[in-house]
User: Which sequence fits this backbone?
């Protein structure tokens, strides 16, 4: 039953042109420092400093705009971005408050204007924060060392795949151990990064309990097993209670065990990767630890491991001198040299450290409790809406911080799909919800995650909007199918997107394909 | 560790439902008496029961700010000092509105969204792709990658998928930091997808690729030739067209790595035969951030041969149900790892999409004249610094011309080591150039200096005076 008064909403509409369509010839937005006369006198004209064959002869077709025009354009586009301005319960991504104080800190020159190759004596503050945060994560995981080079969760999974290579190569077993085992409910980045690193992928299917059986795992583990890469709980809120046995089975066969802790939020302070027996784990600092998402990074996949894998970590690695100061060790002789250049997204490591200190250990416990409770609260209300059912309904036990639902019944009754509803909800100022990673086990899926940020009123409002739209699907399905109506633009034509004659990832391609005149 | 059975939290500014009123309402609706009921799926012996010994909480913003800044002020920044380090991360001026945009909460905090929810941000993504496309002269550009090195690594793998060959030629002048990333991406010979990296010599007389060595290594089993322009040692690869022609003659792909800030004055790679262009995005309005400012891109012609091998996500301009209206949706999503798991084209994930906001703002601010102007200033100031350094006894510029913003300074004649010179410079608040003596021993005691538009004639004079003094 709808609890809230549904408020009026309309997205800002500026009908903003493309920046490439704006400006006038000769207008300037930024003037470079002018070379001093003594330099010109000594050096001459710049064009003479480039061999003729390498000089640019046609200027790039960039816009010519005043500074204010550029500023206003990108402000307009920011206003035309709903994101977290409304309510965003985007499941699997743990939408959190990104404390503003962290922006105040990391945009000061003592963070932003540090060159990664500076002498360590001039970077002690940064190295200290990295070291302090490493130590906090060691406590939360029980593992022995964390590095922050990976630029996101997928990059941390790739780190694991590369460390797996280096570890087995060091033992002369790599040619033999070329298989990585994962499950159908593991995030796609696990099989994808392992395959990119050269491994064969074995994906275990889910069974009745919501996870693959111990027998299924045993049937694929062998002397070819290089590693196991799994998440737990998965992103439908189901915890595999046999996970310790899984780890033992893989270890007994000589494989490594990696814990994709993307869904750490609901089990913070209860589950530690090392206690379960894992060799390594990954935390997403831009999700669980309060860093901003930026629409897709810069992010950090914090990668932690036990003593066994420390010799294989990518450099540079922060180390402590006897006097308590810090230095950077370039790399491990047998290790992965680099996953990516330099230390990683340092500002987000600082933000995550800051967030974790603001929370404290009891705050982390409270956040986990609130998140799981909020999910169970949502489940009660959502299952009262006709046409919505719970994914994997036969699995017993309360779900952790997420539940996946199905709109399959509503779709078969009304013809309105989960994507139609996703679009229509944006007409109420509610950010698009998450559907499901591939493969879809559940028809017409959606996956909300309440987390600890959103208030009960926000959560209720989100549910009320969904219920309003589900009611519309029965009374006025066209309004849902043709949504959005109150957004910046209307429903996109997605057929062009897969047609090589029509797709256009740049304005110059578009102009050619659609014969647009300047 | 719960203070009470119901798990009643302590009110905290980051958590609305830490207030007892809403927490209790949720408990009651969800019919929870003991908070541990919610964790009934987890076997008891999986749960941590030990002591935490965790650092005390700092829920007060005032205390938190003080704690963090007290630690971070131990840093000495490139802004308060005079910095000549480049080598993969470069100090350029970041216009104020670039910072304004990337700290706007609308851009800073959201997840991906959809064309319906986040039209404005999707438009920024499209503008980023389009503006990069103008600079490099290519029609197909993806959303950014983690870094220059990861962009190059993926591009090499694209080439190997395109022509099913397993060898890439890379000049020995490549940035060792990036080469390490490339090696990671090229894999291990014991496993599938391995790509052999074959080094190509560079000419010690001018820093450019040694064409005869290149010719001797080109054959029909080469997937691609990769080179940077300008290269890591600052040198403009003026024989780029010849390299591309030789590469194409054996049916291999030409991959060129660029610093886009040079492209107002340097020829765009599409003009000299590049098939895949990669590069850094950090110089375009992003702070160095201790290395956290790095980002990369991949660009090609708009041709299915290339488009269907992109590992990235990318937005395409499309229409809506209303004639004339523009929308931006993902294209070729199904070939990404999100769409096809291990059967996709490599893999993607969270990247550095926020930096597209800074990059697009920066490229729009500069415009065609700004790019030419900043390129000219960098060329003149870097050549001036090199010329003045060469006047110091014992100091030589290894290749005195034909570079863009970085150049190699050799100190052999001073009988001093770069490491010692840099230590003395640091005492004078100068960050000297990157020490090359370990990575490029045949260049002797050399350092890679970076001079950009931020260095005035006076800054350069300060450097000259200091180097003259410490090399005496």
Assistant:
């Amino acid at each position: 039953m709808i609890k809230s008064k549904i408020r009026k909403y309309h997205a800002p509409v500026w009908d903003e042109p493309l920046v490439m369509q704006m400006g006038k010839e000769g207008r300037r937005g930024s003037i470079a420092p002018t070379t001093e006369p003594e330099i010109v006198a000594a050096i001459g004209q710049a064009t003479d400093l480039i061999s003729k064959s390498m000089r640019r002869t046609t200027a790039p077709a960039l816009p010519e705009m005043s500074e204010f025009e550029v500023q206003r354009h990108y402000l307009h586009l920011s206003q035309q971005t709903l994101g977290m301005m409304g309510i965003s319960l985007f499941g699997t991504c743990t939408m959190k408050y990104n404390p503003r104080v962290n922006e105040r800190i990391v945009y000061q020159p003592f963070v932003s204007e540090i060159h990664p190759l500076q002498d360590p004596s001039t970077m002690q503050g940064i190295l200290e924060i990295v070291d302090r945060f490493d130590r906090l994560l060691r406590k939360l995981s029980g593992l022995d060392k964390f590095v922050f080079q990976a630029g996101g969760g997928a990059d941390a999974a790739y780190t694991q795949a590369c460390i797996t290579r280096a570890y087995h190569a060091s033992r002369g077993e790599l040619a033999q151990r070329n298989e990585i085992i994962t499950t159908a409910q593991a995030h796609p980045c696990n099989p994808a990064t392992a395959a990119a690193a050269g491994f064969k992928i074995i994906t275990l299917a889910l069974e009745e309990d919501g996870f693959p059986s111990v027998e299924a795992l045993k049937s694929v583990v062998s002397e070819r097993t290089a590693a196991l890469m799994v998440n737990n709980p998965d992103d439908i809120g189901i915890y595999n209670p046999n996970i310790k046995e899984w780890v033992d089975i893989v270890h007994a066969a000589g494989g490594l065990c990696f814990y994709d802790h993307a869904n750490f939020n609901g089990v913070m302070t209860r589950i530690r990767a090392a206690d379960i027996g894992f060799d390594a784990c990954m935390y997403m600092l831009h999700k669980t630890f309060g860093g901003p998402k930026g629409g897709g990074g810069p992010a950090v996949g914090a990668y932690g491991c036990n003593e066994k894998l420390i010799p294989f970590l990518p450099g540079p690695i922060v180390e402590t001198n006897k006097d308590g100061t810090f230095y950077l060790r370039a790399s491990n002789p047998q290790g992965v040299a680099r996953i990516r250049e330099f230390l990683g997204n340092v500002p987000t490591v600082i933000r995550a450290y800051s967030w974790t200190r603001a929370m404290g250990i009891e705050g982390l416990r409270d956040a986990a409790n609130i998140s799981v409770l909020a999910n169970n609260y949502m489940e009660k209300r959502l299952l009262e809406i006709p046409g919505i059912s719970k994914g994997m309904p036969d699995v017993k036990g309360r779900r952790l911080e997420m539940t996946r639902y199905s709109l399959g019944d509503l779709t078969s009754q009304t013809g309105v799909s989960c994507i139609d509803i996703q679009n229509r909800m944006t007409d109420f100022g509610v950010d698009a919800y998450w559907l499901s990673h591939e493969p879809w086990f559940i028809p017409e899926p959606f996956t909300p995650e309440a987390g600890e940020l959103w208030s009960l009123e926000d959560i209720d409002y989100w549910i009320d909007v969904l219920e309003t739209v589900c009611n519309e699907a029965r009374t006025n399905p066209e309004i849902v199918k043709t949504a959005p109506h109150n957004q910046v633009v209307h429903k996109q034509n997605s057929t062009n997107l897969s047609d090589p004659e029509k797709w256009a990832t740049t304005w110059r391609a578009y102009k050619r394909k659609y014969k647009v005149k300047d | 560790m719960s203070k009470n059975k119901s798990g009643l939290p302590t009110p905290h500014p980051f958590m609305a439902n830490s207030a007892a009123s809403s927490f209790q309402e949720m408990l009651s609706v969800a019919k929870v008496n003991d908070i541990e009921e919610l964790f009934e799926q987890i076997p008891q012996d999986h749960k941590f029961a030990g002591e935490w010994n965790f650092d005390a909480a700092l829920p007060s913003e005032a205390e938190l700010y003080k704690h963090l800044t007290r630690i971070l002020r131990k840093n000495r920044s490139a802004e308060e000092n005079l910095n000549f380090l480049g080598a993969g991360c470069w100090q350029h001026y970041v216009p104020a509105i670039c910072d304004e945009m990337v700290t706007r909460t609308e851009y800073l905090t959201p997840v991906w969204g959809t064309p319906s929810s986040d039209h404005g941000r999707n438009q920024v993504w499209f503008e980023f792709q389009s503006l990069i496309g103008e600079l490099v002269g290519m029609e197909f550009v993806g959303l950014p990658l983690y870094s220059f090195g990861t962009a190059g690594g993926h591009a090499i793998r694209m080439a190997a998928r395109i022509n099913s060959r397993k060898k890439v030629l890379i000049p020995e002048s490549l940035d060792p930091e990036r080469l390490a990333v490339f090696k990671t991406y090229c894999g291990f010979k014991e496993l599938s997808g391995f790509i052999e990296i074959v080094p190509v010599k560079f000419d010690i007389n001018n820093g450019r690729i040694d064409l005869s060595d290149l010719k001797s290594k080109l054959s029909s089993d080469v997937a691609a030739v990769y080179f940077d322009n300008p290269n890591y040692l600052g040198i403009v690869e003026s024989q780029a067209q010849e390299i591309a022609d030789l590469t194409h003659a054996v049916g291999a792909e030409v991959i060129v790595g660029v610093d886009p800030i040079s492209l107002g004055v340097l020829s765009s790679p599409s003009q000299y035969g590049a098939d895949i262009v990669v590069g850094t995005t950090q110089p375009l309005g992003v702070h160095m951030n201790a290395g956290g400012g790095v980002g990369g891109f991949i660009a090609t012609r708009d041709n299915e041969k290339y488009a269907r091998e992109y590992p990235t996500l990318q937005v395409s301009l499309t229409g809506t149900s209303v004639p004339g209206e523009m929308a931006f949706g993902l294209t070729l999503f199904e070939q990404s790892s999100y769409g096809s798991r291990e059967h996709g084209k490599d893999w993607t994930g969270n990247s550095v999409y926020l930096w597209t906001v800074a990059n697009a703002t920066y490229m729009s601010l500069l415009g065609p004249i700004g790019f030419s102007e900043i390129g000219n200033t960098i060329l003149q100031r870097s050549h001036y610094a090199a010329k003045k350094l060469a006047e110091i006894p014992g100091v030589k510029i290894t290749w005195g011309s034909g570079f863009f913003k970085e150049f190699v300074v050799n100190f052999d004649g001073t009988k001093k080591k770069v490491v010692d010179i840099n230590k003395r410079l640091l005492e004078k608040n100068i960050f000297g150039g990157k020490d090359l003596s370990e990575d490029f021993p045949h260049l002797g005691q050399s350092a890679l200096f970076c001079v950009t538009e931020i260095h005035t004639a006076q800054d350069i004079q300060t450097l000259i005076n200091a180097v003259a003094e410490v090399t005496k």
Residues 82-89+370-470 of chain B form a domain with the Aspartate Aminotransferase, domain 1 fold (CATH 3.90.1150.10). The first strand of chain B starts at residue 82 and ends at 83. Chain B has a mean pLDDT of 97.
